[in-house]
């Protein structure tokens, strides 16, 4: 129906008030309008709809069956518009709710810097709180209401109770070394090569550890005897820069160092570690306006970087 473009917010609001009061005069008083103005607005809406929405009944008025049908849908639209306006107002309140985000290391260094910068540039007043850590801990904090969202790898099914996951992109684990490492540039890496150097691997509780263990088995490689278990990206970078070590880590964590040539990816097939990275939220909770804005920005940046 092309007439839909002629419907205005005032049409819906006026009809809702007339229906609520069953009176044009009381609706006019509620809206701070004159009775002729209310009557004219209702007539405009009826002309757009092509149906009588209001009828006289004794000394008052009633909503016609066509009006009832229209109100069931228009009422939801009006309520949604009001919620939208309220949400926009909350984004500019200095004392609005803090947006609390849990971000795994791969997201903390790849998506979050640009997302936070765009969030601040939007003029939103809601403060941000960003924490990182192991996926299990962050998901527990999300489930307990301590966080609004967690951005990271798809959790295992048993940890998803009460949560919803929205995929954003996919990434894999890589083996990296510093530029100048004896193994850098090799076309083939053997088990003996891995035994010769300390290897940093994700901790047993980290979400990518099962992928890493399975990958070692698939490639016929023994799990490193000199393994250093860590989820600290700051330690991983520092150790890799100072020592002839190997780091098994999500690609996103070291993407900038790989692009700059500071780190080199070893020739080990890690395709089996490919997994989804996305947004985790509580199934029974609605995001605050500030959190929804940040989630929208994160989606856009993830699409752009994918």
UniProtKB/TrEMBL annotation:
<dbReference type="GO" id="GO:0003677">
    <property type="term" value="F:DNA binding"/>
</dbReference>
<dbReference type="InterPro" id="IPR000847">
    <property type="entry name" value="LysR_HTH_N"/>
</dbReference>
<dbReference type="InterPro" id="IPR036390">
    <property type="entry name" value="WH_DNA-bd_sf"/>
</dbReference>
<feature type="domain" description="HTH lysR-type">
    <location>
        <begin position="7"/>
        <end position="64"/>
    </location>
</feature>
<dbReference type="InterPro" id="IPR005119">
    <property type="entry name" value="LysR_subst-bd"/>
</dbReference>
<dbReference type="Pfam" id="PF00126">
    <property type="entry name" value="HTH_1"/>
</dbReference>
<dbReference type="Pfam" id="PF03466">
    <property type="entry name" value="LysR_substrate"/>
</dbReference>
<protein>
    <submittedName>
        <fullName>Pca operon transcription factor PcaQ</fullName>
    </submittedName>
</protein>
<keyword id="KW-0804">Transcription</keyword>
<dbReference type="InterPro" id="IPR012787">
    <property type="entry name" value="TF_PcaQ"/>
</dbReference>
<keyword id="KW-0238">DNA-binding</keyword>
<dbReference type="GO" id="GO:0019619">
    <property type="term" value="P:3,4-dihydroxybenzoate catabolic process"/>
</dbReference>
<comment type="similarity">
    <text>Belongs to the LysR transcriptional regulatory family.</text>
</comment>
<dbReference type="InterPro" id="IPR036388">
    <property type="entry name" value="WH-like_DNA-bd_sf"/>
</dbReference>
<dbReference type="InterPro" id="IPR050950">
    <property type="entry name" value="HTH-type_LysR_regulators"/>
</dbReference>
<dbReference type="GO" id="GO:0045893">
    <property type="term" value="P:positive regulation of DNA-templated transcription"/>
</dbReference>
<dbReference type="GO" id="GO:0005829">
    <property type="term" value="C:cytosol"/>
</dbReference>
<keyword id="KW-0805">Transcription regulation</keyword>
<dbReference type="GO" id="GO:0003700">
    <property type="term" value="F:DNA-binding transcription factor activity"/>
</dbReference>
């Amino acid at each position: 129906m092309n007439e839909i473009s002629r419907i205005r917010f005032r049409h819906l609001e006026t009809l809702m008030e007339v229906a609520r009061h069953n009176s044009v005069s009381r609706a006019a008083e509620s809206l701070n309008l004159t009775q002729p103005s209310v009557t004219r607005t209702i007539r405009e809406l009826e002309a757009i709809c092509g149906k009588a929405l209001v009828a006289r009944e004794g000394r008052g008025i009633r909503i016609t069956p066509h009006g009832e049908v229209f109100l069931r849908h228009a009422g939801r639209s009006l309520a949604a518009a009001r919620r939208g306006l309220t949400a926009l107002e909350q984004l500019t309140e200095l004392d609005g709710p803090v947006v609390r985000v849990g971000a795994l290391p791969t997201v903390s260094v790849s998506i979050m810097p640009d997302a936070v910068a765009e969030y601040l540039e939007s003029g939103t007043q809601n403060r941000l709180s960003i924490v990182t850590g192991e996926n299990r801990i962050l998901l527990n904090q999300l489930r307990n209401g301590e966080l609004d969202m967690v951005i990271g790898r798809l959790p295992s099914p048993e940890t998803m109770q009460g949560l919803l996951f929205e995929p954003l992109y996919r990434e894999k684990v890589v083996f990296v070394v510093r530029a100048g490492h004896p193994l850098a540039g090799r076309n083939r890496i053997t088990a003996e090569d891995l035994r010769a150097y300390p290897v940093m691997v994700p901790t047993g509780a980290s979400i990518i550890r099962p992928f890493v263990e399975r990958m070692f088995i698939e490639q016929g490689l023994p799990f490193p005897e000199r393994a250093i278990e860590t989820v600290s990206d700051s330690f991983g970078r520092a150790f890799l820069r100072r020592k002839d070590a190997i780091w098994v880590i999500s690609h996103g964590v070291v993407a900038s160092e790989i692009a700059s040539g500071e780190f080199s990816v070893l020739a080990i097939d890690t395709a089996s570690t490919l997994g989804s990275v996305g947004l985790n939220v509580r199934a029974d909770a609605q995001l605050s306006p500030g959190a929804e804005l940040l989630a929208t920005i994160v989606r856009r940046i993830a699409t752009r970087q994918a």
